[in-house]
Design goal:
Layout lengths: L5 H9 L10 H10 L7 E5 L5 H9 L4 E6 L2 H11 L6 E5 L9 E6 L8 H8 L3 E14 L5 H6 L7 E2 H10 L2 E9 L2 H17 L5 H18 L6 E9 L3
Length: 243
């Protein structure tokens, strides 16, 4: 049997997990409220993963038309299965979130905007927004006076800034902030607790690349546990200045 590739090991680890990053259903309700997203909105879940937030969006706005997009075929298939009960009003496809068409009343992007960069993504998505539309995204954020443990957690993301730095990147794209809140604690627990169970289920017999992937995931969880009150995403709701 051929050895797994790093990509194969990643997909094996994330298979059957409800989420691919921190988050909670209440975050979407807050963002939809701040953005004043209408009941019959057209919404895009950009970088939807396996569809956890797509499902919540569909429940929160039962009259909305929702497009969900991800580049990874396995995640797209999982999201399609999860959203099938909502019928044709939820469409999940494999694609590039840098090339959205719209027009959307809300573009939701949980933990994936860093692939493009905040300023770059907001500029790319400007023409995909309907008049009065907004973007909601989450981005790694340093809290005030971060400890060595918090800095160690984000060591592989050197472009991380505090919330003022995030606001500056939003402004550079020609957007204004409608609302912001920090995702700390529960949102991360909802991500790491199922991952810990998944690691334990895969550990027996794991070797090579898969064993390495499990080790790295365990180390990440351990780094989070060293400073759980300091590890945060900033959840931002923003809109074009001239929108």
């Amino acid at each position: 049997m051929p050895e797994l590739t790093p990509d194969d090991a990643f997909l094996t680890l994330y298979s059957d997990l409800a989420r691919e990053g921190p988050g909670a259903a209440a975050d979407l309700g807050w963002a939809l409220s701040v953005a004043a997203t209408p009941a019959d909105a057209r919404i895009c879940d950009a970088g939807c993963g396996s569809g956890a937030d797509t499902v919540t969006l569909a429940k929160e706005r039962p009259k909305a038309q929702i497009d969900a997009i991800d580049q990874i075929a396995q995640f797209v298939a999982a999201a399609q299965k999860r959203t099938a009960p909502f019928g044709a009003r939820v469409q999940v496809r494999q694609g590039d979130m840098a090339a959205l068409s719209g027009p959307y009343d809300l573009i939701w992007c949980a933990g994936a905007v860093y692939f493009l960069g905040i300023t770059e993504a907001l500029r790319l998505w400007r023409d995909a927004l309907a008049p009065g539309g907004a973007v909601a995204f989450s981005e790694p954020c340093l809290l005030a006076r971060p400890s060595a443990a918090a800095r160690a957690f984000w060591a592989e993301y050197p472009q991380i800034t505090d919330v003022a730095g995030i606001r500056a990147r939003v402004a550079a794209a020609g957007y204004r902030v409608l609302g912001e809140q920090m995702q700390i604690g529960a949102a991360w627990e909802a991500y790491y607790t199922p991952m810990s169970r998944r690691i334990a289920s895969l550990r027996p017999g794991a070797t090579g690349v898969l064993a390495n992937a499990l080790d790295e995931a365990e180390q990440e969880i351990a780094r989070w546990k060293a400073a759980p009150s300091e590890i945060a995403y900033a959840l931002m709701v923003v809109a074009p200045v001239d929108g």
